């Protein structure tokens, strides 16, 4: 599903070019809903004099409240699996201090200690103290857009549904240096491989799939019929036991996730 369809609440800004004249600045940002937002000098971007026309989209960003749909999700930078899938180059950069990451796990502990509530089968588990930058794309105006978002988040009045202390996002490999230069820090996240169904689904019985079990004949039945029924019941029970013995419980697989976090002021 598209993030614009599932994210709730959602707000953001975009930048468009003005008349293609050298040195002209973009007029400011607008919210996703189309309403004018407060113009910010930091959000303007230089527009080249060639190969552009007025009104071209130059950058956009959307923000929502961080939400997960896994019951076992947690922030944990010190877990063995948090960085287990890093390639050799990334692992070396972290050892050499060239990457900004949650070295002692303190930031992950803070995030994990924040309040959260919800149902993973419906609205998801919502973390009202954590904002998420769900989408960000820009040509030459990414920094002012990100600064504008952080400024907006820090100035939002506290409400029952949200009071942001942190900003999280997932970054592509090429964008990591940009986000680290803006104060973001890598934090480890893990979740177990959740191969489960709803409890009510697991307890529900499909009557169409119920197989009749052999029953013993009544006292006036022929003794051979009774013996055949007993043998059939014994064979059915043996097949069930063999099937159970052949099943091997698969251990929970831990999946890691690389997330970048920014503390709001």
Automatic annotation (TrEMBL):
Region feature (Disordered): 21-40, 200-251
Domain of life: Eukaryota
Biased composition annotated in UniProt, kind: Basic and acidic residues: 200-210
Compositionally skewed regions (Acidic residues) per UniProt: 217-228
Protein name stated in the entry: Uncharacterized protein
Species, as recorded: Pseudictyota dubia
């Amino acid at each position: 599903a598209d993030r614009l369809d599932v994210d709730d609440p959602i707000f953001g800004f975009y930048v468009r070019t003005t008349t293609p004249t050298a040195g002209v600045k973009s007029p400011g940002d607008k919210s996703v809903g189309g309403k004018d937002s407060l113009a910010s000098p930091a959000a303007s971007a230089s527009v080249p004099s060639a190969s552009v026309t007025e009104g071209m989209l130059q950058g956009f960003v959307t923000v929502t409240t961080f939400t997960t749909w896994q019951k076992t999700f947690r922030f944990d930078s010190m877990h063995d699996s948090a960085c287990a899938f890093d390639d050799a180059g990334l692992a070396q950069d972290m050892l050499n201090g060239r990457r900004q990451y949650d070295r002692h796990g303190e930031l992950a502990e803070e995030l994990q200690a924040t309040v959260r509530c919800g149902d993973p089968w419906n609205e998801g588990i919502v973390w009202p103290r954590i904002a998420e930058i769900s989408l960000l794309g820009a040509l030459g105006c990414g920094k002012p857009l990100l600064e504008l978002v952080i400024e907006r988040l820090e100035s939002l009045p506290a409400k029952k549904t949200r009071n942001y202390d942190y900003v999280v996002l997932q970054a592509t490999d090429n964008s990591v240096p940009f986000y680290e230069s803006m104060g973001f820090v890598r934090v480890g996240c893990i979740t177990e491989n959740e191969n489960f169904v709803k409890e009510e689904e697991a307890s529900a019985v499909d009557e169409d799939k119920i197989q009749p079990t052999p029953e013993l004949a009544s006292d006036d039945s022929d003794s051979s019929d009774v013996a055949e029924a007993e043998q059939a019941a014994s064979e059915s029970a043996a097949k069930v036991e063999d099937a159970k013995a052949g099943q091997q419980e698969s251990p929970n697989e831990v999946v890691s996730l690389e997330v970048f976090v920014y503390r709001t002021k």
